[in-house]
Design brief:
The protein is about 50% helix and about 10% strand. The chain has about 210 residues and is mostly helical. Helix 2 crosses helix 6.
Length: about 210
């Protein structure tokens, strides 16, 4: 790596490497590990399953994570639905073009309109009453279940070296989403706790009567 870094930047190389490593971790889930201490030799390894039980979908691993999280971000930033034109404009900025095979993601249209739709991470549907037909992308049910607007906003913020609150309107929406999720979970927890308490009391009564 030092051979391709211009000599005027060599003294800043440790910081350049640190930043690059952070972004590879953030975007692709790849971790830069030194082979041996002070060896200046590194390996790129996929980070382990964040859930710890092997249940993490392949969509959140390298390389698909590198396109899924940005897509969810674009959809969120466009009012929770993004037109096909807006999505491709964004992907073009990343060097991903419709009809052109990508070295990492393969055929991008097939990936985002078929694979990620089939896996229920994205919804790809015709805009109602559009003539000629126009299409848009929304979060799919698995995306809604497996991540949150706040996590996506944190991803976008880190990618831009800032914090979620730097985007006030989106931050407020993400906070509301967190609150709604918490309220939805609370009744379920309360029901589970109530059932556990009832079972405990019943068991206690049975144990209190000797045979």
């Amino acid at each position: 790596m030092l051979k391709i870094v211009h000599k005027r930047y060599k003294e800043h190389f440790p910081e350049i490497l640190r930043k690059a490593s952070e972004h590879m971790d953030l975007v692709f889930g790849l971790e830069l590990k030194e082979v041996q201490p002070n060896s200046h030799s590194y390996n790129l390894v996929c980070k382990s399953d964040d859930t710890g039980d092997g249940s993490l979908s392949s969509a959140w691993r390298f390389p698909i994570k590198g396109i899924l999280m940005p897509l969810l971000g674009v959809i969120f930033l466009h009012g929770n639905r993004a037109s096909e034109e807006e999505v491709w404009q964004f992907l073009n900025i990343l060097g991903i073009y419709d009809g052109k095979r990508h070295f990492m993601f393969g055929e991008p249209r097939k990936l985002i309109t078929q694979y990620l739709v089939k896996e229920k991470y994205l919804e790809y549907r015709q805009v109602p009453n559009s003539d000629p037909p126009r299409f848009e992308f929304l979060w799919g049910p698995r995306a809604q279940a497996e991540t949150t607007k706040m996590r996506v906003l944190e991803f976008l913020s880190k990618a831009n070296d800032t914090v979620p609150s730097a985007f006030p309107s989106y931050y407020e929406e993400a906070l509301r989403d967190e609150e709604e999720r918490a309220r939805a979970i609370s009744p379920t927890k309360a029901g589970t706790t109530s059932k556990a308490s009832t079972c405990s009391k019943a068991t206690s009564r049975l144990n209190s009567h000797p045979e």
